[in-house]
Amino acid sequence: MSLKEIPISKGLPLLGHLFDYKKDRLQMLKKAHVEFGGIFKLKVGPKTLVVITQPEQIEHVLQKKMDIYIKKTNADQLFGKSIGTANGAEWKKQRSLIQPLLNPRYFNNIFEDVKSIIIKNTDHYIDKLNNGENIRELFSKITYDIILKCMIGLDSYDKFHAVDNAIQEMTDFISNDKYSFIDLPEVINKKKQNFKKSLSLLNEIIYEGIEQADTENPRSLVSVLKKEIENNNDIKDKKAFIRDNIFTLLYAGYDTSALTLSWLSYELSLHPEWLEKCFDEVKDLDFQNLTYPEIKDLPIITACVNETMRLYPPGWAFTRFATEDDDLCGYQIRKGDILLYSPYLTHRDGHLWDNPDDFQPERFVGKSPVEIGRFQFIPFGAGPRTCTGMQFGMMEIKAILIYVLQKYRMQLSGERPKMDARVTLFSTNNYQVKLKER
Ligand code: HEM
Known about the structure:
By secondary structure, this protein is α+β, with helices and mostly antiparallel strands. It has helices at 18-36, 55-64, 76-79, 88-98, 107-130, 135-152, 160-177, 190-212, 221-229, 238-270, 272-282, 292-295, 299-311, 343-347, 369-372, 390-407; strands at 8-9, 39-44, 47-52, 69-70, 318-322, 326-328, 331-333, 338-341, 408-412, 419-421, 425-427, 433-437. It has one domain: CATH 1.10.630.10. 40% of the residues are buried.
């Protein structure tokens, strides 16, 4: 049986949908999704993307045929060859070393540190926040300190704003660079120069962590990893191996949890009934003496977090590169095609979800994400390359939320936020959410 050709939306000659992409990429993708259906091609500048949205297509690419759909990045300078960028046997080796280190059985050890970071930062930030500071900055500062302490082994760094800017600079650079036609040399490319500066700041922090890591008494992920690979002859450049992986974990785990908390605060400010249900679930917990097993379940809070990640998946789109021709659920894929799967599109598909644009946490109450559909609810990706930090992210999101809910109510204080799809899903106007004391 011959395979079907995938419908294509070409846009303007030469430029394709480049302007729409730069202006509002979510709107552009959503429009094409409605017009063309579950699978379509989209021309953006010099590239053509094959956009897949249906669970069976996502299962095919991320699981059944994952060996032929590989990750390819324009950001080797950032991540080197890490768990997030390697493929094939190299990726398997890295994953088998990193994944056990993020196993929830270690969370009991770090939970005391996590709690004191949350208390210190929230109490310190609250005045600033209510004087107009962005709520994302509060959450980012907490997740930054948690990652710094638990992964890199450093105590709160006074360079938060510099690091936050550096990460945003690098992110903007790689997301825009992907679809540009020309590669300007560094001497006349200001963005490239800033990118390099940002990169050296982050490298400086990570190398400081590697230097200080105590393998006799390993407490941070850097020190555990350093000890773990000490005698591993498969890994030639051990310092680069640790740097690349820790950089990846820092980058992947920094914004994602903070953005989820920011969008959730916004939705709870609009839905006081859910805000109170969440509060009721945690009001009797003693935060100072809280242990990790106590926060694992919490069905109402878990449902609200899941519903937030359905509507606003922090990683809203990811790509894969086809290394062979393939039959993708009846459609023709050619070697060299770039495939894009988007949790955002799949999560807002009206054929898959009732009232897809509404905040309805009840759809997750008493139902695990797996029951909903492993390839339909995909905020953490799916298949063997699913997020390694998923449990860690859920742990910090819930712990931060419990502390905030026990003391404050979320309140909208301005215009509703509009989504801004960078590499992760930001808001254009700082969420406009304040925390009012209970
Ligand atoms: C709410 C929080 C988070 C969300 C929504 C999220 C989302 C995702 C998604 C969608 C992927 C798959 C990307 C793909 O298919 O190309 C992924 C991969 C990954 N995430 Fe997360 N993530 C979160 C938190 C974290 C944290 C806290 C860490 C680290 C501590 C982390 C580390 C990673 C790594 C290393 C990968 C690559 C895994 C591989 O390729 O084998 N993530 N994440």
